[in-house]
Write a structure and sequence with these properties.
heterodimer, A: alpha/beta, Rossmann fold, 5 strands, globular, B: alpha+beta, Cytochrome-c3 Hydrogenase, chain B, 4-stranded mixed beta sheet, about 20% strand, disordered N terminus
Chain lengths: ~160, ~500
């Protein structure tokens, strides 16, 4: 299954870069793997939809604020809850849901499934390349979860065949 | 005083809130437009090597990284006292034109267009890019996607990466252009011209030939007589990449013309207690409040402003459109130049004329024999210690100002981003639109949010840039507040 993993965020705004840091780790894990591409994006909306095009499964990793948990809490979301992460839409064009519909109108081949991991951020308004310790602790956990999910998908498909 | 606020939902950052204060008679007394503050950009940069800046500053914003990259490398040329070879300047401009094509295209179809193509009073569920596509034809969705894809490819080819270019270095560009690459870019440029002409055709058919939209375009609600700022070449023609900054007065007379390096002699920044954003104004005129007219130092730096400051456009088809723009909107021509157009909604049309100009300029550069020259960098020989770089970003004149020590380590950084220039003008446009909708305590609820949003959407404010942030969502809440401080109405849009 052609899979794209997309870390979204700003690398210089403290915890906003958590999705990018997780993508870095996953890039290392999946280097050389033909059917998994890892990308980093700094804005959402149409750009995020374009990054998904041509893949069957899209995994998006982003920071979020205002969730019910503490900093570093991890949420897995579907498309319906997308409004809750920080960067999946762009104030300059469209929400991801709208962008996906635009892509479909434009004849792009879009993923049948979109999975989102969101990490509750502590600070997204101070310029820094480092995560806060609470959020940094979530990085290995999300990496593990994404890998586990992709692997279980693979095993399921192999069993099916 | 009563207050009406347009406020964001707080779970998202990078938000805007508009407060509308009413007086005892229930008329609009004042409006405030507030955004989130981000902290520590200067401290983040100070102490770093200056040459890191083109890559750091293009992280400020996920929407216009190319603009920050270019302003930054131009500032570095000066910090290190090295002029780039002609081919490097042309490659930089070529990439920049591809960026302008995507940015202006996206703005028109996704943000500006819906108000006109779908209608300002259409339900929000329809007033979006999908509604536009349903109106103008699904094939246009393919064209918009194809336009973005081919220009992203050009940016990747020239800039080393599809997003956040990395190829700019002090004294030039880090990779030259091969003949094969040039040929592909030429094809993309030709397609861009066709697409720009098509888009201008859509604007003519759907907007200009529709009496109601024409009336809205020229209505008093979106009219301001201010100074205008933009970059021109030595012949006073529009230039988005390089030249001198020209400022004209509300009558269209040249008020100032200067090198970007001298910006502090011409522009000062006003701080208001209610906003983290600064309000730049023309120093020589002075700050007289949020007011129109030649006595007020408020200016505007947008696509409309850039057309207003230019005597003409340098490319043939864009020049035809430029003339049509001023003739259609009834601007008089004296001494070889048109009087400025003050209808702010015409900014959407001006943006499309710039789209055509950028596409034509892209073709000129892609067919320039020098573009494939291997000589794309001059090596810096020392450190001058100070440099200002400037380009016209899609949302206004962008300035990067760096000071370093003798080793090239940053000691001071100041940015004036496109949107910042327009803060006062945006605040005035919001107040005027609100004033038309709220009179004698009567709040016209139907469409209020959108009519007010239209007033700032035409500027396409990049609040993330303006607060040195990344672009996040910009959900909006408008609060209407009475003289006792009670919020009497609240309108919200959840992004």
């Amino acid at each position: 299954m052609r899979t794209v993993i997309i870390g979204v965020g700003n690398p210089v705004l403290t915890d906003d870069g958590v999705g990018l840091k997780i993508a870095d780790c996953l890039e290392e894990k999946y280097r050389g793997c033909a059917d998994v591409t890892v990308r980093q994006l700094h804005c959402g909306g149409i750009r995020l939809m374009e990054a998904m095009a041509g893949h069957e499964l899209a995994v998006v990793i982003d920071a979020m604020t205002g969730g019910s948990g503490r900093a570093g809490s991890v949420y897995t979301l579907g498309l319906a809850e997308l409004g809750q992460t920080r960067n999946t839409w762009s104030a300059h064009d469209a929400s991801l849901a709208m962008a996906l519909e635009l892509g479909a109108m434009g004849g792009l081949k879009l993923p049948g499934a979109v999975r989102i991991w969101a990490v509750e951020a502590k600070d997204v308004s101070t310029f820094s390349e480092s995560l806060t310790p609470e959020v940094a602790r979530a990085v290995p956990r999300v990496v593990k979860e994404v890998v586990r999910e992709l692997e279980s998908g693979r095993r399921a498909r192999r069993t099916k065949r | 005083m009563k207050r009406v606020s347009i406020d964001p939902i707080t779970r998202l950052e990078g938000h805007g809130r508009i407060d509308i204060f009413l007086d005892e008679e229930g008329n609009v007394a004042n409006t405030c437009f507030q955004v989130l503050e981000l902290r520590g950009f200067e401290q983040f940069c100070v102490g770093r090597r200056a040459e890191e800046m083109p890559v750091i500053t293009n992280r400020i914003c996920g929407v216009c990284p190319e603009a920050h990259h270019m302003a930054s490398v131009k500032a570095l040329d000066r910090v290190f006292g090295v002029a780039p070879p002609p081919a490097a300047n042309k490659i930089r401009e070529l990439l920049y034109m591809a960026f302008f094509v995507t940015d202006h295209t996206t703005h028109f179809y996704a943000l500006g267009g819906p108000d006109f193509l779908v209608g300002p009073d259409a339900p929000p569920a329809e007033r979006n890019i999908l509604g536009v596509m349903r109106k103008v034809g699904l094939d246009v969705a393919k064209q918009v996607i194809a336009c973005r894809a081919r220009n992203h490819k050009v940016i990747e080819t020239l800039g080393g990466r599809q997003i956040h270019p990395v190829a700019g270095v002090p004294g030039g560009w880090s990779k030259s252009v091969s003949e094969d690459e040039r040929r592909e870019i030429e094809i993309a440029a030709r397609q861009n011209i066709e697409f720009a002409l098509f888009t201008l055709g859509v604007f003519e058919t759907v907007v200009l030939r529709n009496a109601a939209y024409r009336e809205m375009l020229e209505s008093d609600a979106y009219h301001h007589r201010t100074y205008y700022m933009g970059t021109v070449d030595p012949g006073n023609r529009l230039n988005l990449f390089d030249g001198q900054i020209r400022v004209i007065d509300p009558e269209g007379r040249e008020f100032a013309r200067y090198d970007a390096a001298d910006y502090t002699e011409h522009v000062a920044e006003r701080v208001e207690p209610w906003s983290y954003l600064k309000f730049p104004f023309l120093k020589r005129v002075g700050w007289k409040g949020f007011r129109d007219g030649a006595e007020s130092g408020v200016y505007c730096a947008t696509p409309l402003a850039r057309l207003n400051v230019a005597d003409r456009l340098p490319t043939p088809r864009a020049q035809e459109q430029f003339e049509k723009f001023y003739e259609t909107l009834g601007a008089k021509k004296t001494d070889g130049r048109y009087a400025p157009v003050h209808h702010r909604l015409a900014t959407h049309w001006a943006r499309l004329i710039e789209l055509l100009y950028a596409a034509e300029r892209m073709l000129e550069l892609a067919t320039d024999p020098e573009i494939t020259s291997p000589h794309v960098r001059n090596l810096p020989q020392g450190v001058v210690g100070h440099g200002v770089g400037c380009v016209e970003a899609p949302r206004g004149t962008l300035i990067h100002d760096y000071t370093t020590d003798a080793e090239g380590i940053l000691r001071k950084v100041n940015l004036i981003v496109g949107t910042t220039n327009n803060h006062a003008a945006i605040a005035m446009s919001i107040r005027k639109a609100a004033g038309q909708l709220i009179q004698a305590g009567r709040v016209v609820e139907e469409g209020l949010l959108n009519r007010i949003e239209m007033a700032f959407r035409l500027y396409d404010p990049c609040l993330s840039c303006a607060t040195h942030a990344l672009p996040g969502a910009m959900p909006l809440i408008v609060n209407v507040i009475n003289p006792s401080g009670d919020t009497i109405r609240m309108f919200r849009r959840d992004g």
